[in-house]
Amino acid sequence: MSYSQELEAIAIAHGCAGFGVTHAGPFSGLADTLRQRIASGAAGKLGFTYKDPELASDVRQSYPWAASLVVVSWPYMPAAGQPGPPAAGLGRIARFATRDHYSGLRIALEAVAARLEADGHRVGILVDDVRLVDRAAAIRAGIGWHGKSTMVLDPRFGPWLLLGSVVTDAVLEASAEMVRDCGKCDACIPACPTGAIVSPGVLDASLCIAHWTQVTGVIPRQLRAAMGDRLYGCDECLDACPPGHKVMEGGRQGAGRVDLVEILAADDHTLRNRFNHFYIPRNNPRYLRRNALVALGNATAAAQEARTATSVEVEQIVAVLAGFLGDPDELYRIHAGWAMGRIGGRVASVLLQTRLADERETEVARELEQSLLECGGAAS
Same structural domain for residues 237 and 325? Predict the structure, then answer.
């Protein structure tokens, strides 16, 4: 076996789906692409690799001694399971975050890095790191191809992959890039609930549901209904991808389903501990509660339409929303008011009207007025 093959054997033995090697030089044109997306607004409110395009597109800025990147992919399906049927009061989490699936990837990378270190080489491990655009590294290392969804795809697991790299001073033979693409398939594009895949392989993050579950601020009103019952992340373009369909079979039902009322009732400490693998801005649970309020409104409205929600369930959920409608935090008042309007009904209309009469913040008042109209009431 060659040295690279020995490293690959270690990665595969630790559960990796793919392995590749590329040189550690800059990714041609990538920094310009990142800057263009920032300038156009297509980066949305994302920071991460958009914070410093030059740093993210040239690993030698962080590791001047780097010669090679060893790149691996980790499959999280079917282990991540299926969310199962929706219901009033229940939300769902994207499969990559149903638990800390990155833990297995990190262990595999540490094993590869340990072998390189034992042989006298310098190493660094990069997983979801601002110093490397991991999809670019994976494609150049032959791990997969650039899908029209913008995800890295491979023939066995489709898009259900996590990516990570070991940067090293070892001079390793580079792998060939994968000679494959999506062909005529564009199933992911119409599957996106908000049209965020604006052209094949190009994502407008300002329209992406997954993006909005991970950033600060008020979720745009025009995107809230499309969020459905999602608490965190979105799998729609991945679900639609044919290469990934086979591994979706056999996953445990109900994985990633969460009680939204329970989340809204939990304190900060509980939420931070339970969801510490989420990328929530500044690890602040208020953004998780914001997401939960939107998801609760959508889940309950859908259950009402499907006639699977009892009147008692709806009353209890409206009571929970009413508590947030009077919260000192205007972020909660905005999203609770929207959820109330989404559910509708006489009680919701009265509660919105009462809150509106006392509301002093202009932005919140505008939101409540719109929610009241959608609820069937009229602002006085």
Answer: no
